[in-house]
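Cross-posted from the bioinformatics board.
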Amino acid sequence: MRVDVVLFAHFSGFQPDGKGGRHARAFEFEEGTTIADVIAMLGLPDEPRVIFVNSTHAPEEQELRDGDRLAIFPPVAGG
Amino acid sequence: MSATSDTFDLHPYRPERVAVEVPDTALDPELRARLHECTVAIIGCGGLGSNVAEMLARSGVGRLTLVDFDTVDERNLNRQFFFRDQIGMPKVIALAENLQRIRSDVRLDLVQDRVTPENLVGLVRGACAIVEAVDEAGVKAMIVNTCLAELPDIPLVTASGLAGYGSTNAIVTERMADGLYVVGDLTSDVRDGHPLFASRVMAAAAAQAHAVVRVLLGYREP
């Protein structure tokens, strides 16, 4: 299945092409792949994060579906 | 009057020239009423939250829920809406005092407590909008994750990336997901040693407050 992955802020440096930037990259995943699987595959650091699938909040254990757009946003400190 | 004094006016402030009062009814009465009926929950009353509260009170929001566990410290005075004689006071009490000096009719619910995944929903349920204004990244993420999961119908305005002396032009407001508005440059982190400047923190606070006003007035895009 095809899933678009968007990584915000410093997470964007973990896109496999190493080019950074917040534009979506297309990935091919096996059926049953979860968001947690994708996080592990990308090697994202264990930092606070917010996850959306198709602009809706999603838990890490959620299975992805063909055509999904996964976005991961790491809030940074300061206020 | 000589030509010279006309050209070099050393006293440009002339009250008779600026006496045109800006009427407080500039906003359509129906829209004013809409803001007055709204409750906005502000989580964190530091650099962001205290200034957001001030701007929402001045904008006519009827009721504010103010949540903060902390007390006013001298180090807060470089960017937070507090005064020297309030050092040591609970921030929610000091902020309430200041807001009522601006608008005596603003209704305030004060909560001096830390937000946790357990108490958060109870504190903000029923609000028309929620403002995330804390400083720790982990708490920001917890607030966003909890509110989006438990209260997806209440718009949430969060902030991320407002430290340092980068241009305020880098501070933007975007609708990152359904019901989630993010203000900031997304990257400048106090953990990287960036200081917090009043001007940049207040720019972010103003953007947060304005996103709230727009949402309350019915706009979907910030």
